[in-house]
Amino acid sequence: MTFRRYLVLAVVALTAPVGDTLLSLGMKQVGPISLDHLSTLITAVGTPQILLGIALLICFFASYLASLSWADLTFVLPATSIGNVIVALLAKFWLHEQISPWRWIGILLITAGVGFVTQGPSYTETAKEEPQLQGAEVRQS
Amino acid sequence: MNWAAPQHGFADAAMIAAIVVFATAGDILIAAAMRAIGDLDEIRGRSGLGGAVAAVLMNAKFVSGVFFMALSFFSLLFALSHADLSLVAPAATSLTFVTNAVAAKFFLKENVDKRRWIAALFVCAGVVFMSF
Questions:
Q1: Which of A136, B28, B66, B80 is the most exposed place for a label (fewest CB within 10 A)?
Q2: Nearest Cβ partner of B31 from A20, A24, A68?
Q3: Containing domain of residue B42, as a range?
Q4: B89 and A20 in contact by Cβ < 8 A?
């Protein structure tokens, strides 16, 4: 894992929770949507918070795709969950919000989980790739 | 959190289940597509940004994955208009960690060892605690 790859994981970690929070703010403005008026979901996309949330989620998606091209899903998902912790810490030290003891326990658990997964290998080498290479070598010889 | 409202319990569970199932299907299909495509940095080095984008967009598994992700996204929007973010987001997120670990082991043949199981369960529990 290079520094650049850790940077991509950091973008995945930060853009997802901030984007989700903006979507939530936007949907609170739109209000409840009934099953009879599902088309309101499409018009809700025009709300500024939802637009900004979608822009961040597009950044998330691009970096998420890049990370999945060189790391396992079961490595990327826990590793990038540190974003939830960063958002909570920003809320505490920047917005001066209170963090309950339960949340501190949650922060500790997530941080421990991220620590566990990032100590291990990031990618499972599949056996499928080797026979293909050997086959290619045989054909070449 | 609104665990104590039985009249909303089933509807909330159904909305959360829909988000989790669609998100897991989307994640697995997209991860399978990206594994098949290979390192995007290398493809960009060989064929440029356009080549990398084309390699992703032409992959059928990727397109199916995006379809399921879109279903999950609209399920999330629908759920957020009915239930609290403090219930929907942590429940869906934490359950998706576990369902993804199980699905990645069986469908993607990823090496989900003890370390990754512990990480998935710690993060899952942590997300729930963060919602209190």
A1: A136
A2: A68
A3: 6-130
A4: yes
Calpha distance B114→A111 (Å, rounded): 17
In a domain, B123, yes or no: yes
Query: Which 3 state secondary structure label does DSSP give A40?
Result: helix
Q: Residue count of chain B, please give it.
A: 132
Check CB contact under 8 Å for B132 and A66: no
Q: Tell me the residue range of the domain where A122 lies.
A: 3-140
φ/ψ bin of A125: left (φ > 0), alpha (ψ from -120 to 50), beta (otherwise): beta
Model pTM score:
0.76
Q: Which of A31, A41, A65 sits opposite B77 (nearest CB)?
A: A41
Answer yes or no: do A81 and B110 touch at CB < 8 A: no
Please count the structural domains in chain B. Answer: 1
pLDDT digits (tens, 9 = 90+) for A13-65: 989 888 877 887 888 788 887 777 777 788 888 889 899 999 998 999 899 99
* ipTM value for the complex: 0.81
Number of domains composing chain A: 1
